[in-house]
UniProtKB/TrEMBL annotation:
One of its GO terms (molecular function) is transferase activity. Keywords: Transferase. Belongs to the amidase family. Residues 25-439 form the Amidase domain. Gene3D superfamilies: Amidase signature (AS) domain. The keyword Transferase applies. SUPFAM superfamilies: Amidase signature (AS) enzymes. This is Asp-tRNA(Asn)/Glu-tRNA(Gln) amidotransferase GatCAB subunit A. The keyword Transferase applies. InterPro entries: Amidase, Amidase_CS, Amidase_dom, AS_sf.
């Protein structure tokens, strides 16, 4: 049973199907593992033990009757604690909502349960998803399982930790500036930000409605595909071809833009990123360099939209209960208060123009995907960056925010480790609703390198040395 915690969803589903393991036993053993490890890693805010075992009991009975709801039947999944779960607390990582009991399930929770997933717990996050480190002043920081002194990234840090440390077979996060992709890269797992609005945000505490995305954080690319198919809006999913599989990358055109995307990158990380790019080329991809006009203006637009929309949601709560927010969130919301309506409108107009520019660029150059680093520096020590400086962490740590302004599908894939054994990831961005192609390209790379088996062989993390 010990080895099962690092297996992919397809493998565990097969074990469940042939009754090599039962949903109840799997859930019990996973809960025991979480109870043992979570006090150190702090991946979870709430462990839903009773609900999870009740779900497992129903699913086990169905399995014995030959009923299989879907590819997640009996698979324990973690949720970022920003999604409503009926009858349970949804804190959004804040004291403001510490006693908020949801009266309904978020849309994605309904879909996950319908497909047979077991909701094992609610994962820790940066308060209100408004930061890149998951240093939560109310529920404590989540810790990177590769080095517990380091941040795991954010805001979906607890979700990434849960998957990387074998405390969930997958997790669902949100991504407004890179909050799925960045912690996935820093913790050595796969993170997918789908096309904007492909997955419904109903029942998810908003951060910035124009930029918010929901997506899976998994052990393999194939697992991300499974979860996307389960969670996506059925009508919109008709535009996505998830049947695409590639033997190699012949005929695939990969673009890089060295301006901005490769700026500020640590030399050691750059070596691994360029090795990954060379591997794509060796697998048959054509690599081209392109220029992108207006990146700095686009980043500024992204910041304005984020600040204005975040403040719009929090305004009444912030006016009444500002003292309950963490210091770094107070800085962010105060900045949003000062955004002018004209600035916001101009930023939205620029967003549309920039989207059209990139779409035209990809069509004209026949680009399949853009390639760039996910993280450009290693994770820094927990507590080493002050609240007033943390607003820029997402821009310091990686090259993810532009993807939210564009709303295009982006996959982050592990591609190596620093000399201190800290994970590195790269991201590939495709055209609107071309998740199938993006996943297929990522899968070809993943299978050529074997990072998944590396994770499975290295079950002993820093945290287990401290216990």
């Amino acid at each position: 049973m010990e080895n099962v915690f690092f297996k992919d969803i397809e493998s565990v589903a097969q074990m469940l199907k042939v009754q090599e393991v039962s949903p109840i036993d799997l859930t019990k053993k996973l809960l025991e593992r979480i109870q043992s490890i979570n006090p150190v890693l702090n991946a979870y805010i709430t462990l839903m033990s009773k609900d999870a075992l009740e779900q497992a009991t129903v699913l086990e009975k169905e399995l014995k009757e030959g009923i299989i709801r879907g590819p997640l039947h009996g698979i324990p999944i973690a949720l970022k604690d920003i999604f409503e779960t009926k009858g349970s607390v949804t804190t959004s990582g804040s004291r403001i909502f510490e006693n908020f009991i949801s009266q309904k399930d978020a849309e994605i929770v309904k879909l996950l349960k319908k497909a047979g997933a077991i909701i094992i717990g609610k994962a820790n996050l940066h308060e209100f998803a408004m930061g890149a480190t998951t240093e939560n002043p109310h529920y404590g920081p989540s810790r990177n399982p590769w080095n517990i002194l380091k941040i795991p990234g954010g805001s979906s840090g607890g979700s990434a930790v849960a998957v990387a440390a074998g405390m969930a077979f997958a997790a669902i996060g949100t991504d407004t500036g890179g909050s799925i992709r960045l912690p996935s890269a820093l913790c050595g797992v796969v993170g997918l930000k789908p096309t904007y609005d492909l997955i419904s945000t109903d029942g998810c505490t908003p951060l910035s409605k124009s930029l918010d995305h929901i997506g899976p954080m998994t052990r393999t690319v194939a697992d991300s595909r499974i979860l996307l198919q389960v969670m996506a809006d059925a009508k919109k999913l008709e535009r996505v071809d998830l049947s695409i599989r590639l033997k190699d990358l012949k005929g695939v055109k990969v673009a890089i833009c060295k301006d901005y995307f490769f700026e500020g990158i640590y030399e050691e990380i750059a070596i691994h990123i360029h090795q990954a790019l060379a591997k794509l080329e060796n697998l048959g991809a054509e690599i081209i360099e392109v220029d992108i006009v207006g990146i700095q203006e686009a980043l500024q637009a992204q910041k304005i939209i984020f600040k204005a929309e975040a403040y719009a949601f929090h305004e009444s709560m912030f006016m009444d209960k500002s003292h309950l927010y963490g210091e770094d969130i107070q800085f962010r919301l105060q900045a949003g208060k000062d955004v002018l309506a004209s600035e916001y409108i101009q930023a939205k107009q620029y967003q549309q123009a920039f989207q059209q520019h990139i779409e035209h660029k990809m069509q004209a150059e026949q680009i399949d995907v853009f390639f760039s680093p996910t993280n450009i520096i290693p994770p820094f020590d927990i507590g080493s960056v002050g609240p007033e400086e943390s607003v820029n962490n997402i821009f310091r740590l990686g090259k993810t925010p532009l993807g939210n302004l564009l709303g295009l599908p982006i996959l982050s894939v592990p591609c190596g480790f620093t000399s201190e054994r800290l994970p590195i990831g790269f991201q590939i961005m495709g055209r609107m609703f071309e998740e199938g192609k993006v996943l297929a390209i990522g899968e070809v790379y993943e299978q050529s390198e074997g990072w998944v088996s590396y994770l499975e062989r290295n079950e002993v993390y820093q945290i287990e040395k401290t216990m």
